[in-house]
Amino acid sequence: MTTVLLAISLLVRGGAADRVPAVIVFGDSTADTGNNNFIQTLLRGNYTPYGRDFAGGVATGRFSNGRLAVDYVSQALGLPPVVPAYLDPGHSIHRLGSGVSFASAGSGLDDITAQIFSAVTLTQQIEHFKEYKEKLARAKGDAAASHAIARSLYLLSVGATDLLANYLLFPIRRYRFTLPEYEEYLVGAAEAAVRAIYGLGARRVRIPGLPPLGCLPLQRTVNPARPGDCNKWHNMVARSFNRRLRAMVWRLNRDLPEARVVYVDQYRLLGDMIAKPWVYGFENSVRGCCGTGYVETGVLCSLDNALTCEDADKYVFFDAVHPSERAYKIIANAIVHAASHGLK
Q1: How does pLDDT run across 112-132, given as a tens digit for each residue?
Q2: Tens digits of per-residue pLDDT, 121-162?
Q3: Which residues face 157 on adjacent strands?
Q4: Pfam families recorded for this chain (predicted)?
Q5: What's the whole-number average pLDDT of the chain?
Q6: Fewer CB within 10 Å: N-end or C-end of the chain?
């Protein structure tokens, strides 16, 4: 739930040999740049008002009024300003060579989460990465492809859908796991995913922690204890999960030679934007821009198009779940600065 241009010189000053050749993305709707447009699922953002501030006002499938954090990260690294979707048949391997997103809205660390929403599971995303690596080798040669894979920056933006849709709001996994057990299960899945892409050549991995889930506009609206206020329990769950995630990142850096896995504290940053929006130039951090701003996300945004705000830059959230393009840009800046350590 991440973002940027200020860090370009810091990240590329080491010369051509040190530059990141591609940004490679796994995750959910916070990182899906259009993959769900090409699968059978209801979770799509390829209609207005999504994309209204994108170049040309095109709804690309991104759950945002414009670009996502991953797009801004790419631009900050001197790469194209947008990260293409892997499943888009209009992109050749040469276009995908400088960046690719395998993410799918509705996906999670738990493959059952993705299956609920008919999204691409994280397991399938990693299989797509394997295919991508093979295509890259055929296009560039084994040595050049391996070099690019090793020096690319990998982003894993996932986990919120598991806890919200698969446990806290709907008790699908609650019948099998206690909450601490499910958190541990999810972190284990994240670790397995990183180890899997490491086995395929990835070395530089950035993992944003969960945002304050209880402060999403939708979660405020459905808060049974204090409607309109942040759900303190859901925020506590996000913080608990993030602590486990930090420990996992430390473990991976210890166990995997040459791996540089970095945790990005998205909770603190987005929480600060929500608590003090004026500091970041926002006017509203309680409602989303689209519709009433309280419950609309996905297709519901298109039903209330006439109510959508005039200037999304004034809002931390574009819909009731996802940040606005401007908030994503700030999140991307945090990712870039975290990624600046050890990129040479």
Answers
A1: 999 999 999 999 999 999 999
A2: 999 999 999 999 999 999 999 999 999 999 999 999 999 999
A3: 27
A4: Lipase_GDSL (PF00657)
A5: 93
A6: C
Asked whether residue 267 is assigned to any structural domain, the reply reads yes
* 319 classed as catalytic: yes
pLDDT at 18: 66
Spacing of C-alpha 255 from chain mean position: 25
Q: Residue 4 pLDDT > 50, yes or no?
A: no
322 is catalytic: yes
| DSSP-assigned states of every residue in 165-193 | IIIISS-TTTTT--HHHHHHHHHHHHHHH
pLDDT value, residue 340: 52
Closest residue by Cα to residue 245 from 322, 335, 196, 253: 253
Determine the length of the chain. 344
**Of 28, 29, 101, 313, which residue is the catalytic one?**
29
CATH of residue 193's domain is: 3.40.50.1110
CA distance linking residue 115 with residue 106, whole number of Å: 9
> Within 10 Å of residue 225's Cβ, how many Cβ atoms?
8
Give domain status of residue 189, yes or no: yes
φ, ψ (nearest 5 deg) of residue 167: -140, -60
**Residue from 32, 53, 313, 322 carrying the catalytic annotation:** 322
Domains held by the chain: number: 1
Cα separation, 84 vs 142, whole angstroms: 23
Q: What is the mean pLDDT of residues 308-312?
A: 95
From the list 32, 53, 162, 319, the catalytic residue is 319
Its domain, for residue 185, covers: 5-339
